[in-house]
Specification:
Strand content: 5-15%
Distance between the termini: 27 Å
Shape: elongated
Largest sheet: 3 strands, antiparallel
Oligomer: single chain
Number of strands: 5
Strand order of the largest sheet: 4-3-5
Structural class: alpha+beta
Number of helices: 7
Order of helices and strands: HHHHEEHEEHEH
Helix content: 55-70%
Length: 169
């Protein structure tokens, strides 16, 4: 099922946290400088859920908050505002982080030989680790055989190229 979102900010919020984030994001776009109580009322979500979502989005710099004194109650409340302009740069930064991780993983895959016993519940070992255990799996004691990681390297290169192309756009 493919859902179209009305705004990249809303789409990003939904990707980060699902339905609750989607509702909060929409409420933030519907009114500027809104309190957590107003968001809870508009979305039907419990106040503690709304606050959890707001603090997470604030931590990711997707929203901003200002502390103001509530004239009726006499205490301070936070008024929240969506930072729609930051959604695209947040996504770009995440892609850059992923790209760097993929490059490091490819470098690791290309720099070592790996060995495995064939048992899915056992870990793959580097050549150095395999030598230490005399090419016997430390988990199941089966003989370790060299692993062909060509497909892993090919998949990593493909993803790296795909993200790099996307970042150039």
């Amino acid at each position: 099922m493919h859902i179209e979102y009305e705004d990249s900010f809303v789409k990003l919020a939904s990707l980060i946290g699902g339905e609750e984030y989607l509702k909060v994001a929409r409420a933030l776009l519907n009114s500027e400088d809104v309190t957590d109580e107003e968001i809870a009322s508009a979305t039907g979500l419990r106040i503690n859920i709304v606050r959890k979502v707001l603090y997470d989005m604030f931590g990711k710099a997707l929203i901003s908050g200002i502390r103001v004194k509530d004239d009726k109650k006499g205490w301070f409340v936070y008024r929240w505002r969506a930072r729609r302009d930051y959604a695209d740069s947040f996504i770009e930064n995440q892609k850059k982080k992923i790209l760097e991780r993929l490059k490091k993983r490819l470098e690791y895959e290309e720099s070592a030989e790996f060995y495995h016993c064939g048992n899915k519940s056992c870990d793959r070992l580097s050549f150095e680790e395999a030598v230490e255990v005399l090419f016997k799996c430390p988990n199941c004691k089966n003989l370790l055989n060299k692993v062909d990681n060509t497909n892993i390297k090919k998949a990593l290169r493909y993803k790296i190229d795909e993200i790099a192309r996307d970042l150039k756009k």
